[in-house]
Amino acid sequence: MPDFFEDVARKWKSFSTGRASRKSSRIDETAVKTAYARWAPVYDWVFGYVFDSGRRAAVAFLNELPPSHLLECGVGTGISLPHYKTDHRITGIDLSPDMLDVARERVRKDRLTNIVALEEADAGDLSAADASFDASVAMFVLTVVPDPQAVMSELARVTKPGGAVVLVSHFADQKGWRKWFGEKMAPLSSSLGWHMDFSVDRILGRSDLRLVDRRRIGPIGFFTLLVFERV
Hints:
CATH class: Alpha Beta
CATH superfamily: Vaccinia Virus protein VP39
Strand order of the largest sheet: 5-4-3-6-7-9-8
Number of domains: 1
Number of helices: 7
Low-confidence stretches: 1-27
CATH architecture: 3-Layer(aba) Sandwich
């Protein structure tokens, strides 16, 4: 199915007409909310399988930790929430109220009693106090936010020293099949403001986060899992 992603993008074109506009590398918050309001009802159907390996790899790492209070940044529709260990306590944040409505319904329907809160928030300006969480995770978030460094700073700030900051995303260091796959995904990913040309170097080299694990995941290694220790 060489044109799968182009086909899906065409079918759901009406959902992406409100996608974020770009000006001086910033994304208008209202446009982002409008775009995700359109995508919220079908997000899991379109992206659920495609990004499943990345989500599961991140959650699997976190499930190896002792019972913890975790922050999921960019929780979206809450598609990952049922996969956490029940002795973890999860706080999820997202910019989109419509995506959060889907997540809350998932929590209710699946009776997920370990979800502490699902809150509307800007990932680059969190209200949580310093060192509020034992670990934090951002799945497919860094390549869409207008200020990745601000998000990284916030993830580090709210994570306790010695805790883990876990990221998973696609980064622009691909060749062969991975590069071809990325090119096929471009029409669909652009409808949500994702930057397929995002370099991982933009989020490395921080003094407050020490990289302890980096590995490709998924059937063709298309995504990358990064695990940092909060220094």
